[in-house]
Structures are given as C-alpha cells and as structure tokens.
Write a structure and sequence with these properties.
It is a single chain. By secondary structure, the chain is mainly β. About 0% of the residues lie in helices and about 50% in strands. It has strands spanning about 1-5, 10-15, 20, 30-35, 55-60, 60-65, 75-85, 95-100, 105-115. A five-stranded mixed beta sheet has the order 3-9-8-5-6, with no helix packed on it. Strands 2-1-4-7 form a four-stranded antiparallel beta sheet, with no helix packed on it. Strand 1 (about 1-5) and strand 2 (about 10-15) form a beta hairpin.
Length: about 120
C-alpha cells in the first residue's frame, strides 16, 4: 500500500514503485512498509523462522528479512516500521526489490523496486 524510506535528512519520504530517494551514505537504510492482506489465508508473524511465518524481504545490496510482528488477517492492514533495506551502508546507487516470503513455502506478492542514491 505504501513504502516510505528514511532519506538523508532523516525525513520519511513516500516512494512510488520504481522511484528513487536520496539516502545517507555509510549507514543501513530503513523503510516503513504498509500492506493489506488480500489473500484468503492469514499472514503469520515471522518470529523464530517457523514454517509459514511471513517476512518482508529486501534484495539488492545483500538480502535482509524483516518479520511481521503480528498476524494479519484477510483484508486487514499492517505497518512494518523498521524494514532494513540494506544490511550495511552503501556508497553507490543501489536498486532494492521488496517482496514477501512465507518461511519454508514461497515468495509472494507484487515486487516493489526503489533506487537508493547516497
């Protein structure tokens, strides 16, 4: 539904799919992601890497996984407040792809891309 990236000035900047944002160099980059579950199944929290637990996966400058903190039922929304987009700082432009992962099952959902420019 919505992706906001923490910009170089510390502000949360809304980003469109395929968009770009200027970020701080040399520090891990974070986002806030708001999603709505349109599937029939409830999304399970991703704690303890249990089968079926749902994570937001960021790929590009390495891979990070951020677990859902609580279950998200059909048609409910949730905001994942600290999605790490990069495992470490970046020095050059990086395109990051966000998707979902059901642990031990499959990746799912629309791919969302954002370019980070330090």
């Amino acid at each position: 539904d919505r992706v906001e990236v923490k910009a170089a000035n510390g502000a949360w900047v809304p980003v469109e799919n395929g968009g770009a944002v200027v970020v701080a160099a040399g520090v891990p980059i974070e986002a806030r992601v708001t999603v709505t579950n349109l599937a029939e199944a409830t999304w399970l929290p991703g704690r303890h890497r249990r089968p079926g637990g749902v994570y937001v996966v960021a790929e590009g400058a390495g891979e990070t996984r951020t677990p859902l903190a609580a279950a998200v039922a059909r048609h409910d929304s949730a905001t994942i407040r600290r999605v790490r987009l990069t495992p470490a700082g970046i020095d050059g432009s990086e395109t990051i792809t966000l998707t979902f992962l059901a642990e031990g099952r499959t990746r799912f959902g629309q791919k969302f891309q954002v370019t980070l420019n330090p």
